[in-house]
Design brief:
The protein has one domain: Vaccinia Virus protein VP39 (Rossmann fold). It has helices spanning 7-17, 48-58, 75-84, 97-108, 147-150, and strands spanning 37-40, 43-45, 65-69, 89-94, 115-119, 133-138, 153-163, 166-172, 178-185. With 193 residues, it is of the alpha/beta class.
Length: 193
């Protein structure tokens, strides 16, 4: 695997993609504001500075297989796709059908055929049949670290997930042991199975 994207790499990709195409019309005037913005159904497009912090912790590199849980507007799926490049694969999963449809349409216009957003299966976290993944990004707050997502991590994989307002970085070693570190306080919509 290649070296992980730096903060400047992440910010460059975010600038190039822009946030506007991923927002409903009413939120588009605020695309450049560093705040979470509503995308409908009680969901938000995450605050840009939070996305940068999460992606820095995730250590995404070219050629990786990445799962984006709570894809929402498809913005983080597109950012991840640009970071992994055509040799990689990004699968976003979203539980709200209307958001899945809108995100799929937006993503289709970006020429990122190695990225896709799928409808979540009720009661199932992630896309276990497509794993394992080198990286998992979770953009919704869990009440505890979900073991079923940890199981979808490849050996050497990393998951970044907010748990009870604290950002966690979960690393699965090549031998399967799991290390968990904490990285600041954040607010997210709840993670729902």
């Amino acid at each position: 695997m290649s070296k992980p994207a730096t903060v400047s790499d992440i910010m460059r990709v975010m600038r190039e993609l822009g946030r506007t195409p991923f927002l409903p019309e009413g939120a588009q005037p605020y695309a450049d504001v560093d705040l979470p913005l509503p995308i409908g159904h009680g969901q938000t497009n995450s605050q840009p500075s939070t996305v940068v912090a999460m992606l820095e912790l995730l250590e995404v590199g070219a050629g990786m297989r990445v799962l984006d849980v709570g894809a929402g507007s498809g913005w983080t799926t597109a950012i991840l796709a640009r970071l992994v490049g055509p040799a990689g694969r990004v699968l976003g999963v979203e539980r709200i059908a209307d958001l899945t449809r809108r995100a799929t349409t937006t993503l289709a216009g970006l020429d990122l055929p190695w990225a896709e957003i799928r409808q979540a299966v009720p009661g199932v976290l992630g896309l276990p049949d497509e794993g394992p993944y080198d990286r998992i990004l979770v953009s919704a707050e869990a009440s505890e670290i979900p073991g079923d997502l940890v199981e979808q991590l490849a050996p050497g994989g990393i998951m970044v997930i907010p748990v009870r307002s604290v950002m966690h970085r979960v690393c699965r070693s090549p031998t399967g042991t799991v290390e968990d570190s904490r990285h600041g306080l954040y607010s997210f919509v709840p993670l729902i199975r």
